[in-house]
Amino acid sequence: MTHALRPALILVALATLLGVSAEAGLQADNTTLRVFIFAGQSNMVGSDSKVADIQRFPPFAGLGAPQDDVLFSYCIGRENKHRSEGWVPLAPVSNVVGPELSFAREVTRAIQAPIAVIKVAAGGTHLGGDWNPDEPSGFEMYPLARDWIRSALAALDERGTKYRIEGVCWHQGENDMFDEEYMASYGENLSRFLACWRRDLQTPDLRFYIGELCTKTIWGMDLRPRMHAISVGQRAVTEVDPLANYVPTSHVGVEIGGGVGLHYHYGTLGQLEHGVNYAHAYLETLGKRPAQPRPLKAWPYKAGAKVKLFVVAGHRNMEGERAFVQELKAMRGKSSLLKDDHRIAYRYSIGGGYKVSDGWEPLGPAGFYDTFGPELSFGAAVGRKLREGVAVAKFTHSGSQIIDWTPEGSVAATRNLYPSFIGFVKESLQDLRDRGQEVELAGIFYHLGENDMSWGPFRKGAPERLQALVNQSRVDLGLPELPWFVSQQPPTDDERVNEIDVTAGIEEVASADPHLIHIKAFDLPEQQKKLVLDTAGVVALGELLAKRFLSR
Fold it and tell me: For labelling alongside 78, which of 277, 476, 480, 501 has CA 20 to 30 A away?
């Protein structure tokens, strides 16, 4: 590898002599092959994904085909491993969709340099044992990965290919939470893991992208304290290591399972989005993360005019997990929703802050992956009927459960959303006032947590937690009669949870509160999967919320 890196090092030296930073010099080199390493356990493998399902998700069309301009070397699996024969074009392996597919496409769209991917991953492996650099046990993944990577790089040397190792994308940790010792020492083990890779690959400045464990899965609910412990360990490393980036992934799609619908793996959609997250994290280090500015043409309200602020909030379906702009375009009579509406100011914080608007923008599609939520159809319907100005503020986190929204929160303190949510509402109100508007908070429109409807303990606790959220929000916002419009799609129909009548529980809370409107969204368009609404369902939900507000 040293020989292959010489041209790049010479470039760095020349750049430094010219007063340009070494990093800038490296990034200006568009001929040296940039090698990315992907490693981890099942959610890095791509478990429970299928190539045939890619076509169901329009933003990722075509990723089932080989990417001939991207080199790929892989060793994937535990007992029965899938191994490439040398370097091959990047493509799905054994009908499985891994994050490297969307990562490569996103990166090659943004930079001119060629890239390559080396992937070594196996499900059910832990950092404390399998990936332990000092005393590997079990499937001994660390020495296996080290040797595989060295062999792949040696093949590039034999070709005379200039290259440099650009970064490591790491997603792992679920299995460590089942071992008390491994869980408690995850941060220490991860720090040692990074140091050993830099040593063994002779790359002291090697950058790592550490993927967050997905809190949207069933493990994010029933094993909440343990998932939190791993997260704390990851953050302990990324907060002190300037070359280690923490990559949020809790907001990505998750496979829908049988029975109650909850699952352990990202599945096809989640894997495709997972790869985009890593790509954006990498491109951000280069100052090349894709941006689509959406500024208002002009401030839409007259000075001193009254503005009604509508706050939309919630989880998967309020975020719009499976509502795609490409499908909206094909919906009869709905394509106008694709156009930015400069009459309605819109600000948002979605995915728990993964994407935040640049101040106020025109109301329009602004999701992470060509997605959108009910705010589009809601804003259009309300805007047509009201004489006052309309503004919309959206706060969502699809990887959350209702407990995360309560003032008390949970033992997973880093997942508590209530302070950020109330702060977001206050900021929205104050900013409108600072611009000279008379502001009325017309209501908070909250779609109940879909996952909460599927797991017994959270389903049972949903009414009480909702009531705590509503009551405290009125206190903190100084609005004792603040209207809350709480929508609920049909709760999961499964014998394991049907004995808990969550609908009746929500009705009881609403009947005791004249300013809490319970909206039974039980007649939305049929959806393909449990829990998550499709494009038509998300549009219909927004229209239903608007209709209920306008009929008061």
Answer: 277
